[in-house]
Write a structure and sequence with these properties.
- The chain is an all-alpha fold and 146 residues long.
- The chain is built from five helices and no strands.
- Helix 2 runs parallel beside helix 5.
- The chain starts with a helix and ends with a helix.
């Protein structure tokens, strides 16, 4: 499932880049949609990891940030961290955009800011296959040692 998520995240990042570079009414909104979609895929992957290894994760209050913080933790004897500090910051920034995109009633998207976010989304999506591989190796090592 995580490998499949990486494929969809990369497709969303490519689509966001494509929408950003287009020139027609609504292309910036389409770019924002793809950024939103890519973040949602990442968040669902993080939820899946937490639920698989920890059996629960409460969805309340600052759930979205707590999920990012949680997936960045190494939980000895349970699971390794999935995100490192740098990647956690990048994902947090994408989460912030997703929040504004979903909840703002009068949102004026700026091409320059979207370009920064698309670059972040591409970096996160591009790193995901390696993160998944490392996570799998560390989980196998944890299982073999204990």
């Amino acid at each position: 499932e995580l490998r499949e998520d990486t494929i969809h995240m990369m497709a969303a990042a490519r689509a966001a880049r494509s929408r950003l570079e287009e020139e027609h009414p609504g292309h910036l909104e389409a770019c924002g949609y793809e950024l939103n979609r890519g973040y949602n895929i990442a968040e669902r992957a993080f939820e899946r990891i937490c639920l698989s290894f920890e059996n629960h994760f409460e969805k309340r209050g600052d759930y979205h940030q707590r999920l990012i913080d949680r997936i960045s933790l190494d939980i000895p004897g349970v699971r390794p961290a999935f995100l490192d500090v740098e990647m956690r910051g990048m994902v947090t920034e994408l989460k912030g955009f997703r929040h504004v995109f979903r909840h703002a009633y009068d949102l004026r998207l700026r091409r320059d800011r979207l370009a920064e976010l698309v670059a972040l989304a591409e970096a996160v999506a591009g790193a995901m296959p390696g993160l998944v591989e490392r996570f799998e190796r560390e989980v196998v090592a944890l299982l073999e040692s204990g």
